[in-house]
């Protein structure tokens, strides 16, 4: 164990000490409610970011834990970054997990290898990026966990590449969709929640997001997590990842693609066809929700039947919003540990 911790310390610099490890426990198939223990405000950060060519990208990623441990891949959302998991990673590392936290395309130090590659934000492309990263790192299987865009990506991996997904943790549940589904109108109150999607559909919206990227992101953070009292240092640490030269293009394409206003790439068409059928997910899964999530999200009862394997839903109480891993890191880490047991 000492050797494991020494490896963790060498490979994961800059994490604040003193985070308690979460005990292991058998998964309970009943609905579970957990009162989150909010961490003290932390300016912890990652040490040197690793870089590797994988697929169409040079991927930047943080790594923690022993190199020979079971793997957990943690995926962030928009407009967040890898620091959403800065307090989750040491908990998992201390229990023996090898933790990989990549910047998605359009974030941080991840960049395209060619200027000719379309700046494509469609969901299948992002999932294919993670599979390419796993191949390059010689990772056969992993627990895949995420929120927002990261949860959508994790769901797709679990559905289309179940042989590569040991287990799944998905905040807000089943987020697989399609352009056809995205074209269906919602009740006005639901459409209101997606205001930024319609803003991004316009040239004015693209120009506005490019000009006010950080201001826009901070507004989303506040709306999505109305009870999370993050400070400027916490926000600025993550907002730096949005300065990636492809970030605006990827964001705009993602939301326009969802509305059928932008085309994807031909090489992902077969994957998107499979996703349009809303495939079930058979790998062991825990879905989670914060009790104060201000972002658009489905009711757990609406997606429970999409998970045909070992499954549990956990409601995290205590004013937890959309960025559940950063607001309730112990609860998120425990879900990763619990779902991986026996998987």
What does the model show?
The chain has about 350 residues and is of the alpha/beta class. The protein has one domain: Alpha/Beta hydrolase fold, catalytic domain (Rossmann fold), CATH 3.40.50.1820. Helices cover about 35% and strands about 15% of the residues. The protein is built from 15 helices and 10 strands. It has helices spanning about 1-10, 90-95, 125-135, 150-160, 180, 190-195, 195-200, 205-210, 215-225, 230-240, 245-260, 270-275, 300-305, 325, 330-340; strands spanning about 30-35, 50-55, 55-65, 70-75, 100, 110, 140-145, 165-170, 285-290, 310-315. Strands 1, 2, 3, 4, 5, 6, 7, 8, 9 and 10 form a 10-stranded mixed β-sheet that branches. Helix 13 (about 300-305) links the parallel strand 9 and strand 10 (about 310-315). Helix 3 crosses helix 4. It is globular, with a radius of gyration of 19 Å. Residues about 1-30 have low confidence and may be disordered.
């Amino acid at each position: 164990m000492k050797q494991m911790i020494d490896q963790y310390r060498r490979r994961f610099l800059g994490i604040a000490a003193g985070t308690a490890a979460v005990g292991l426990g058998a998964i309970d198939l009943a609905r579970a409610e957990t009162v989150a223990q909010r961490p003290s405000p932390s300016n912890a950060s990652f040490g040197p970011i690793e870089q590797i060519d994988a697929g169409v990208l040079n991927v930047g990623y943080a790594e923690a834990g022993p190199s020979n441990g079971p793997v957990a891949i943690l995926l962030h959302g928009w407009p967040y970054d890898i620091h959403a998991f800065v307090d989750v990673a040491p908990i998992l590392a201390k229990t023996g997990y090898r933790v990989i936290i990549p910047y998605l395309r359009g974030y941080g130090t991840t960049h395209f290898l060619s200027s000719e590659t379309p700046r494509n934000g469609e969901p299948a492309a992002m999932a294919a990026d993670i599979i390419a990263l796993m191949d390059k790192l010689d990772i056969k299987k992993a627990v895949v966990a995420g929120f927002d865009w990261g949860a959508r990506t994790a769901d797709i991996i679990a559905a289309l590449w179940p042989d590569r997904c040991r287990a799944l943790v998905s905040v807000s549940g089943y987020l697989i969709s399609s352009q056809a589904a995205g074209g269906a109108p919602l009740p006005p109150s639901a459409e209101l929640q997606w205001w930024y999607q319609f803003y991004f559909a316009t040239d004015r919206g693209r120009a506005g997001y490019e000009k006010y990227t950080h201001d826009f992101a901070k507004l989303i953070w506040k709306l999505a997590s109305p009870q999370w009292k993050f400070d400027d240092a916490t926000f600025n640490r993550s907002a730096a990842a949005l300065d990636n030269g492809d970030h605006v293009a990827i964001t705009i394409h993602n939301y326009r693609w969802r509305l059928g206003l932008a085309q994807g790439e031909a090489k992902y068409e077969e994957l998107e066809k499979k996703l349009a059928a809303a495939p079930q997910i058979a790998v062991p899964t825990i879905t989670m929700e914060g009790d104060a999530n201000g972002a658009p999200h489905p009711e757990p009862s609406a997606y429970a039947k999409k998970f045909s394997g070992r499954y549990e839903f956990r409601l995290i109480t205590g004013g937890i919003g959309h960025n559940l891993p950063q607001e309730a890191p112990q609860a998120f880490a425990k879900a990763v540990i619990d779902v991986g047991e026996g998987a």
